[in-house]
Specification:
Elements lengths: L8 E4 L4 H11 L5 E4 L15 H16 L3 E10 L20 H11 L7 E11 L5 E12 L15 E3 L11 H5 L3 H13 L4
Parallel strand pairs: 1-2, 1-3
Antiparallel strand pairs: 3-4, 4-5, 5-6
Length: 200
Amino acid sequence: MTRKLTEDQLVIASHNPGKLREIADLLKPFGISVVSAGDLGLPEPEETGLTFIANAELKARAAAEGSGLPALSDDSGLAVTALEGAPGIYSARWAGPEKDFSLAMERVEKELTGSDDRSAAFICALCLCWPDGHCESFEGRVEGQLVWPPRGARGFGYDPIFQAEGQEITFGEMEPERKHGMSHRARAFAQLVEALFPRG
């Protein structure tokens, strides 16, 4: 049985300012106040899972236990077809300790040398955990193509090299409101809202 979310405050189990901003924007219409795990001084757990959902659950569970509040986490990344799904769950690690995504994008482009297949997908797993250990998880994805050189200074991470199917511009060039309406995170969030928010 899916548990409904009745609390009006959530911890966002992330230290990534781009993710925090997007998730806070998505939650705004529901009157839920958010605080980040970073603001609460909670440590980032080691991501030892082998799937996006496993890593999202690790982060949400740790934040819920550490804060005593429901915690929502996101684990997302870029899955490149010609690289057999890499960087996948290691998307952030490809950016190195300084989280330099220009280096990560260059690495993707370098590893695609000699391949005509530019298809890729952004995948996002969202997990909501309560302090008693109950968790609910959802996954969204958006298919697209990789472009080079990177285009646009909006968004974050790999957004400047990802052009979603049917779009003429990259996520890095897209207005935030437009991206929120179609991104992998938005698709996972739509499932979460459908399942977790009480109706009426």
